[in-house]
Amino acid sequence: MPVKILGIAGSLRQGSYNRRLLDVAASLLPADATLEIFDLHGIPLYNQDVERAGLPEPVRAMKEAVRRADAVLIATPEHNWSIPGVLKNALDWVSRPPGDNPFRGKPVAIMGASTGLMGTVRAQLHLRQVLAYLEAYTVTRPEVLVAQAAERFDAEGRLIDPTARQLIADLLQALYELTVRLQAGERMVSARQ
Q: Largest Cα–Cα distance in the chain?
């Protein structure tokens, strides 16, 4: 059975380097994996009054997409040494209401691209903190930190850095292997019950 991976880019920009990283990932998947990309456009700013009235449709769609996925791949830019507000907002919505968090127990891998010299190292550290609170299982290595992204992509938006491409392939393999191990453990627990 294929491993279904949900890709999320933490940027809304049409030519986002991080959206492009997800496109690269789609071409480097392990043989028994698929990638569906979820677009964060349309997710409103979190507001508990809105939540009490019922989850907006884009939020419900994202929660369901995370729930259906076997694993999640997040490509995040770095804004002001942290994760972009649009990504944090989406994660806040998906974790609501309390007790209905589809990230709990979900394998998640992180990668990111930025035009700065340090890639997205600080954003990824903050994202790992958020995912720890959400009780996700985060892949720790390899770290995919595409620095000076404007030099790593060609005019057509293709990632031309062979090291970055290999790191993405290795990250996908690590995510795939973690997912398969966790699924095997769940099957063993179910069989014992």
A: 56
Residue 3: count other Cβ atoms within 10 Å of its Cβ.
22
Cα 105–chain centre separation: 14
Mean pLDDT for the chain overall: 95
Tens digits of residue pLDDT in 81-115: 999 999 999 999 999 998 999 999 999 999 999 99
Q: Cβ(71)–Cβ(106) under 8 Å?
A: yes
Residue type, 193: Q
Cα distance between residue 78 and residue 112, in whole Å:
8
Predicted TM-score of the model (pTM): 0.95
Provide the CB-side half-sphere exposure for 98 (13 A, CA).
2
What's the count of helices (H) and strands (E) in the chain, helices before strands?
A: 7, 6
Rounded alpha-carbon distances, angstroms, from residue 126 to 14, 88, 130: 24, 10, 6
C-alpha to C-alpha distance for 157 and 173, rounded to whole angstroms: 23
